[in-house]
Design a protein that fits this description.
Structural class: alpha/beta
Strand order of the largest sheet: 3-2-1-8-6-9-7
Shape: globular
Number of strands: 11
Strand content: 15-25%
Helix content: 25-40%
Largest sheet: 7 strands, parallel
Oligomer: single chain
Order of helices and strands: HEHEHEHEEEEEHEHEE
Length: 223
Amino acid sequence: MSAQDASPHRHRCKRPVPYLILTNISKRQNVRNLLQLAAAYGCPTVFVVGQRAFEFDPDAEGTDVPPVLQEGVRSGKMRIIRFDKLEVCVAHIKSLPCCDDATEGDGCGAENGEAIANDGKEAIAKPTIPILGVEIDPSSVNLEDEPFATSTAFMMGNEGSGMTAKQMSVCDGFLRISQYGGGTASLNVSVAAGLALHRFHHWARGDAVRTYDGNAWQVDKQW
């Protein structure tokens, strides 16, 4: 299932943004790399679940926030919010508006929102932020298809074992990253996150998409 399928509306956010859920990551360098990628691709918030072996306070001794990001985290330019439990993190994400123009009752400007009852009146269900896992799964959608519909939270799997059953159970859909060589099907977690966030940024800013129709490259604007 893609973010388009998971989203209860057909609204395109005016300013869709990515979020990163950081959980079940084992290696310190990968944690630091993921934080830098989140900053590089405009994540306003990184949600950290568990990860007690790592220090996310930029002012703490031995902090795992890279020096180049510390001032930005202090100033709130990129927030790091910690949770003990994944389900609490998910509930928080689902409580957030999908973008700045999302308001309760107007469907975030949805063309075809989902109608709900509200004191006897018809209202439009507030769209929520879908959570997409980057994981090899029969239901995974190719990242190259840019299957996004709104602001999206991305969750990566563990470096060795991938996503846990609990992680997968809270995802609204899954992304796969195509590979073209004959080697391992696994990418480093920060490499995979970088590819997903870059592709989302490409989609979110409405870059031209080039497709080959069998004879020539066709260039179309997404928005």
